[in-house]
Design a protein that fits this description.
Helix content: 25-40%
Number of domains: 3
CATH class of the largest domain: Mainly Beta
Low-confidence stretches: none
Strand content: 25-35%
Distance between the termini: 46 Å
Number of strands: 19
Radius of gyration: 28 Å
Strand order of the largest sheet: 1-5-4-3-2-6-7-8
Mean pLDDT: 91
CATH superfamily of the largest domain: Hypothetical Protein Pfu-838710-001
CATH topology of the largest domain: Hypothetical Protein Pfu-838710-001
Length: 496
């Protein structure tokens, strides 16, 4: 009678292995192996299926524990040729439905008549160089994995006792990494199984499109991230309704963005509306027009939900640490605030303080005198009174077009560079400098300023005043910039 196979707990990470890889570089491995393998990857299954040394090896993911470790159970290891019944077990493990004629299956027949017949399967040839070590009673394997599409390094830790795996991963300094099994890592390397989604953010001043690809290892890659100023809320403060002209041009931009997203391969599109659509009496009519023209439903979300999603985006883009943090997002019609520590949200709210609203009220789209500017700033401060009397947070993160444009002007970016803006620091003194810069110029003159998005020239003075007032009320003189906002939070929440 053969001994029962005890499934092991496994953990793995890829690339940028840092100190862990350098630690092993100074040690002699207990065993070194070279192997050529063929992995059968599936979009529809987590199973590990590979061919090595003339044997077909199938493992099933049994469970994932609270520490994120995966327990895999061997369910099949058979030599070629395979009986049709055995191939049926492989197909079941891969989660696909493929006709299986009777007869014996060589490796070539399996690849030609089963794998090649399904768009959800991929056969990938892999060469591995593996070095084995022991860390805290667990087996650690350092590997170089080579394919025709690229090469990657990986470290795997496994043991029957999950506590040993956790301890070894911690000892290697890798406990902050996500556990990604080898089939998913291979799929990410070659771009197999990635899925694309889109989010459209319909704001009071601009419409933003974000198309991203979610890879099988859980990481996201940006395909498109752009905005177009449409001024949907033009005249809204006076009438309480969306004007026919701004609604029409905004509808046209949304329709073009939907076509673009579908052309880029987005399989699902989420659209959200913010302050302008929350306020307007006729927003239902606009939402219906978008639905009729594009087939996409615009969900008008609350200010509190908007701030929560912006916080989610900010903490994943620039990191908020574990101290007290305020994330704010100022738009055309409103500003959202989220207070928290680390990942925990304590409070969130929205106030009707937006750049379009104050631009129209005080005529800030042109050169203004000190008296007009002072009146505008006083009114903004009154609108932000919910920030009064709070202890200064350790970190302030700013999101939105006003913040990113102020930063782009500070950095004198003739061409917008998201990598340079994200995580940049914006000081109160720099904001004051730019307020004076915009106060003394017409909109056309502002458009000549390097770094300023031309279509934001009319509303940038109001936006700068709002950002400066927020900092003053929070008792801080500097903020960290995030170019990740509502649309990125929606993407993470709806499609992760």
């Amino acid at each position: 009678m053969s001994a029962e196979v005890v499934p092991r707990w496994e953990w793995r990470t890829f690339d940028e292995l840092g100190e862990a890889e350098r630690r092993f570089a100074g040690s002699r491995p207990e065993r070194v192996e070279e192997s050529d393998e063929t992995y059968l990857l599936s979009r529809l299954s987590d199973a590990s299926v590979k061919v090595r040394g003339g044997l077909l090896d199938v493992k099933r993911l049994e469970r994932v524990n609270a520490d994120g470790l995966e327990q895999w159970r061997p369910v099949m290891k058979a030599p070629f040729p395979l009986a049709a019944a055995d191939v049926g077990r492989v197909v079941e493990a891969l989660g696909v439905d493929v006709p299986l004629p009777e007869g014996k299956y060589s490796q070539e027949r399996l690849l030609d008549e089963v794998v090649a017949e399904s768009p959800d399967l991929l056969a990938l040839d892999v060469h591995k160089h593996r070095e084995h070590y022991t860390v805290g009673g667990a087996m650690a394997e350092v590997s170089e994995v080579r394919t025709d599409q690229g090469t990657m390094d990986t470290i795997a830790v496994e043991a029957e006792d999950p506590a040993r795996v956790v301890a070894a991963v911690r000892e290697l300094g890798l406990e902050s990494r996500r556990n990604v099994n080898l089939p998913r890592g291979l799929e990410a390397l070659v771009g197999f199984g990635a899925r694309r989604y889109a989010v459209i953010d319909v704001g009071t001043n601009s419409v933003k499109l974000f198309v991203a690809e979610r890879r099988t290892d859980g990481d996201w890659a940006t395909v498109v991230d752009r905005s177009e100023i449409t001024r949907l809320g033009e005249g809204l403060a006076e009438t309480g309704r969306l004007g026919e002209e701004p609604a029409g041009r905004t509808l046209g931009v949304i329709a073009a963005m939907v076509d673009e997203a579908r052309g880029d391969g987005a399989e699902s599109i989420a659209a959200v509306g913010t302050a302008g659509l929350r306020i307007a009496d006729n927003s239902d009519r606009f939402v219906a027009a978008v639905r009729e023209r594009t087939g996409v439903e615009v969900e008008v979300i609350s200010g509190e939900e908007e701030s929560r999603l912006a916080y989610l985006a900010a903490k994943t883009s620039v990191g908020v640490g574990n101290g007290s943090t305020v994330v704010f997002d100022t738009g055309g019609g409103s500003s959202q605030f989220t207070f928290g520590e680390g990942d925990r949200v304590r409070e969130r709210f929205s106030v009707e303080v937006g750049a379009v609203r104050f631009t129209e009220r005080f005529g800030l789209d042109r050169e203004v005198d000190d008296e007009t500017l002072s009146a505008a700033r006083a009114s903004i401060a009154e609108g932000l009174s919910r920030l009064d009397g709070r202890p200064p947070p350790e970190v302030v993160v700013g999101i939105g077009g006003a913040v990113t444009n102020l930063t782009s002007v500070k950095l004198e970016l003739a061409v917008y560079d998201a990598a340079a803006v994200r995580g940049a620091v914006l000081e109160a003194g720099e904001i004051e400098r730019q307020i004076e810069l915009y106060r003394t110029r017409t909109a056309d003159q502002r458009r000549e300023i390097v770094g300023l998005q031309p279509k934001r020239a009319e509303v940038i003075l109001a936006g700068a005043c709002i950002v400066r007032t927020v900092l003053a009320k929070l008792g801080r003189d500097v903020l960290t910039v995030s170019d990740r906002g509502l649309r990125h939070g929606v993407m993470l929440e709806r499609f992760s």
